[in-house]
Amino acid sequence: MALRPSAGARTLADVALAELREAIVSGEIPPGTPIRLQEYVDRLGMSTVPIREALRFLEQKGLIERTPHRGVYVSAMSARDLDDTYRIRLDLESIAVRLAAEQMTEADGARILGRVEDYAKASLAGDPVARDIHGDIHMSLYELSGSKWLLLLLPMLWDNSERYRRLSLPLRGTPEQRIEEHRQIVEACAAGDPDQAEALLRSHLSNSFEAAIASLRDGEQDDLAAT
Hints:
Layout: H1 12-25, H2 37-44, H3 48-60, E1 64-67, E2 71-74, H4 79-103, H5 106-125, H6 130-143, H7 148-168, H8 175-190, H9 194-226
Antiparallel strand pairs: 1-2
């Protein structure tokens, strides 16, 4: 199946990066899979140069790894990696959401709550675009922090945790519950209540972590039983 160029990509390297990232985060390319350069030259219909550039960026983000004997492959998923990712996210996103609560304007609140409603419609309709809207809600909040370092670090952690988030969804409660968690976080920020915003965010992330770790460990047990 040919990969589709993403809308808004400005260069061939942007196209390669967007499509490889999506394939990895969505699980289309499973953890541990080798990334063979020629395969993606053929699939994307471009030279090796932009694909190599995209692979270097994905390596910096931790989504792929490079070793002398194995070459380039999608980074493994594990309970330890998941725990490490979410521990750091909890601390950094708590800082970001507190800053957002201190700086959110009425217009900001209305805009982000509008995205929550978009997320609700897409989620309840089973539209895959819900995942992109979900990310937009979180990043729109964190952008209000005004911290360039948070905005450099959080997308890297986000991409890695998105690989685990899809595992959590079957154990994560109903779509309505997930939608309401986002609405409450945004409303706490709009009310200028950083303590409540942080508490709600930590509960939201912890729920996702616990569901993902349970799913991951169930999968590891299934793998052991099959050997």
